[in-house]
C-alpha cells in the first residue's frame, strides 16, 4: 500500500526545506527577468529582514499561446512544492492582473508550464499549457481570494492548493503536464495590460523538495544466493512484478507503469499505455496467473485517493473495481476470479475482496491494521500483515475471510522483526517476507537495515516459523510491495535505494 498524500505537507516525508526563516533570510531564487513582450520593464525587491519578495511587472497576459510578465526563478529537477502568501498593492488597473507560482519548461513565451494563478479579483486557478505553443487551459479552484496558495509537482502531475494560513488548504487538480528536468520554478506577476505595471508581495515563501533517491532494480537468485542489479536510475522506481512469460518486469515511477525487459544488455523503460483515464499509479499492481489481465491502483481526476482498476495486460480497457477510496490492490486469487485489496473505511485499514467480473466489495477482516493480502498458490489461504498482535507479523485466513471476530485468523510469524508483504513463489514452495527493524511503526519510509527473509511455505497446520535472512540493505516503501517472483520460482526482483 502506498502512503497517502494529504492537503498539508506530511511530517513523515523527508523534505529538504529551502524556505528562509527568521535567522536565515536568503533569496531562494537565482535569476529574474521579463518574459515575452513587456514594454515596461519589471523588477524585484527582496527584503532579507522579512523574507518578502515584491514583484513589479507588466505584460498583456499569462495565458493563450504566449506569456508576458515578470518572473524570478530557480532551476530544479524532480518533485517540488512552492508555497506563498500573496497580497496585491493598490486597486489595480485590470481585475485580471495575476500573481503566480509557476513551473516552466523554459523561458520562451510559448513554453509549456503549470502555475497557480491568483487574479486581482480573487479568481484562483491551475493554469497549464500542455505543450509549447499550445493554448493555455485551466482548472478553477473553489476558493476565491485566498491568502495562501501552493503548487505541487509530483512527476508530471500538478496540483494546486488555496486557502488561509493556519488552515487546511483546498486542492484543485491534479493535471498532467509533461515537463523534462530541469524546470524553472518561481514567482511571477502579470499586469494584464502591457502599458501599466502592477505589484504583488509574496511572503512566507517556501520552496521544498523531497529527498531524492537512486533506484537499483535488483534480482536475487535463490539457488546461488547472488544478486544482480539489472537497472539503475536517479529517480524513485517501485514494486517490480515479473511478467508471466518472464520477459519483463512491470514497475511504476512518476505515476506511470513501465515494462523493463530482463535478460538484455541495456534495458530501457517502456511506458504502458493505460489510455486517457489520467491515472496516477502507485506501487500496487500485478498480472493474473495466466498473464491476461492487470490490476493496478491509482488516483485519477475523479478521485485524489487510490482506487483499484482492472485492465487487459496491455493496459487497455481499464475499469474501476472499487468506487470507495482509498483502496490498494495486492493479490489475485489463483483462478483469477477475485482481487484482494486493503481499503481504509471509517478511518481503519482492513482487507477486502471484489469479484473480477464486478460487484460489491466483501469485507474479510475487522481487527487491527491489516495490509498486503496475497493468496497462497493453492488458493486455500490469504496471507497478510497485521499489527493486531502488537508488532507487525504475518497472518493468514481462509479466502472468504477471517469470520466473526476474526476468529479464523492465524498468526504465522512472531519474532523481533516487523514483517510486511508475504509473497509466495509460483510453485508454492517458498514465502518471501519484507521485514523492518523492530519498532518501525509502518512501511512508509526508506531506511537502512530492512531485510528480505525466506521460509518454506506454511502447510495446512502451522509450525513455528523460522525465516532465513537473505539480505539486509537500504530500502522501504516501494522495495517489494507486490509479488515479484519469476515464473520459474528461481528468482525474485526488488528495489534497493540510495540517497542522492
CATH superfamily heading of the largest domain = TolB, C-terminal domain
| Content-based structural category | mainly beta
Radius of gyration computed on alpha carbons: 25 Å
- Predict the CATH topology of the largest domain: Neuraminidase
CATH class of the largest domain: Mainly Beta
Q: Helical element count?
A: 0
How many strand units? 40
Tell me the fraction of residues in β-strands, as a range: over 45%
Report the major sheet.
8 strands, antiparallel
- What is the helix fraction of residues, given as a range? under 10%
Mean pLDDT: 93
- The CATH level-2 architecture of the largest domain is identified as 6 Propeller
Low-confidence stretches: 2-22
Give the number of domains: 2
Explain this structure.
The protein has two domains: 15-210, Jelly Rolls, CATH 2.60.120; 213-499, TolB, C-terminal domain (Neuraminidase, 6 Propeller), CATH 2.120.10. The chain is 0% helix and 51% strand. The protein has no helices and 40 strands. The chain has strands at residues 15-17, 31-35, 43-47, 52-57, 62-63, 66-67, 69-76, 80-89, 98-104, 113-119, 124-129, 137-140, 148-154, 157-163, 170-176, 183-190, 198-210, 213-221, 226-233, 238-242, 248-253, 256-261, 270-271, 280-287, 293-300, 303-312, 319-320, 327-332, 338-345, 348-355, 362-363, 370-375, 382-386, 393-397, 410-411, 418-424, 430-436, 446-456, 468-476, 491-499. 46% of the residues are buried. Mean pLDDT is 93; it is low at 2-22.
Amino acid at each position: 500500500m502506498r502512503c497517502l498524500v494529504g492537503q498539508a505537507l506530511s511530517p513523515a516525508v523527508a523534505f529538504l526545506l529551502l524556505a528562509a526563516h527568521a535567522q536565515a533570510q536568503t533569496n531562494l531564487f537565482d535569476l529574474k527577468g521579463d518574459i515575452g513582450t513587456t514594454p515596461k520593464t519589471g523588477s524585484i525587491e527582496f527584503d532579507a529582514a522579512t523574507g518578502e519578495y515584491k514583484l513589479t511587472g507588466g505584460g498583456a497576459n499569462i495565458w493563450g499561446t504566449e506569456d508576458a510578465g515578470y518572473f524570478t526563478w530557480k532551476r530544479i529537477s524532480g518533485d517540488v512544492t512552492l508555497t506563498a502568501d500573496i497580497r496585491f498593492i493598490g486597486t489595480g488597473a485590470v481585475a485580471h492582473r495575476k500573481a503566480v507560482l509557476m513551473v516552466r519548461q523554459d523561458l520562451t513565451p510559448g513554453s509549456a508550464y503549470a502555475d497557480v494563478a491568483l487574479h486581482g479579483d480573487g479568481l484562483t486557478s491551475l493554469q497549464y499549457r500542455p505543450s509549447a505553443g499550445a493554448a493555455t487551459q485551466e482548472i478553477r479552484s473553489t476558493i476565491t481570494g485566498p491568502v495562501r496558495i501552493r503548487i505541487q509537482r509530483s512527476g508530471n502531475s500538478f496540483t494546486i492548493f488555496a486557502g488561509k494560513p493556519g488552515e487546511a488548504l483546498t486542492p484543485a487538480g491534479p493535471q498532467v503536464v509533461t515537463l523534462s528536468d530541469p524546470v524553472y520554478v518561481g514567482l511571477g506577476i502579470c499586469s494584464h495590460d502591457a502599458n501599466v505595471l502592477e505589484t504583488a508581495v509574496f511572503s512566507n515563501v517556501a520552496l521544498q523538495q523531497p529527498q531524492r533517491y537512486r533506484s537499483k532494480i535488483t534480482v536475487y537468485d535463490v539457488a546461488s544466493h547472488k544478486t544482480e542489479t539489472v537497472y539503475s536510475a536517479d529517480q524513485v522506481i517501485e514494486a517490480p512484478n515479473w511478467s508471466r512469460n518472464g520477459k519483463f518486469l512491470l514497475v511504476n515511477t512518476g505515476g506511470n507503469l513501465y515494462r523493463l525487459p530482463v535478460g538484455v544488455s541495456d534495458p530501457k523503460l517502456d511506458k504502458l499505455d493505460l489510455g486517457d483515464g489520467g491515472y496516477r499509479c502507485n506501487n500496487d499492481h500485478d498480472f493474473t496467473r495466466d498473464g491476461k489481465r492487470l490490476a493496478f491502483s491509482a488516483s485519477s481526476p475523479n478521485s485524489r485517493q487510490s482506487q483499484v482498476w482492472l485492465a487487459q495486460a496491455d493496459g487497455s480497457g481499464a475499469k474501476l473495481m472499487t468506487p470507495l477510496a482509498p483502496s490498494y490492490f495486492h493479490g489475485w486469487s489463483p483462478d483469477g476470479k477475485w482481487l484482494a485489496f486493503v481499503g481504509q473505511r471509517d478511518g481503519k485499514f482492513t482487507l477486502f475482496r471484489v469479484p473480477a467480473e464486478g460487484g460489491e466489495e466483501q469485507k474479510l477482516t475487522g481487527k487491527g491494521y491489516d495490509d498486503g493480502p496475497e493468496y497462497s498458490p493453492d488458493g486455500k489461504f490469504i496471507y497478510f500483515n497485521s499489527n493486531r498482535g502488537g508488532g507487525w507479523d504475518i497472518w493468514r485466513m481462509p479466502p472468504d475471510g477471517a469470520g466473526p471476530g476474526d476468529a479464523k485468523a492465524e498468526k504465522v510469524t512472531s519474532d523481533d522483526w516487523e514483517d510486511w508483504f508475504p509473497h509466495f513463489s509460483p510453485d508454492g514452495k517458498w514465502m518471501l517476507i519484507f521485514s523492518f527493524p523492530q519498532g518501525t511503526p509502518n512501511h512508509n519510509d526508506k531506511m537502512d537495515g530492512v531485510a528480505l527473509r525466506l521460509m518454506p511455505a506454511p502447510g495446512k497446520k502451522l509450525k513455528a516459523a523460522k525465516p532465513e535472512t537473505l539480505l539486509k540493505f537500504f530500502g522501504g516503501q516501494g522495495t517489494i510491495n507486490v509479488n515479484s517472483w519469476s515464473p520459474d520460482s528461481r528468482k525474485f526482483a526488488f528495489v534497493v535505494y540510495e540517497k542522492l
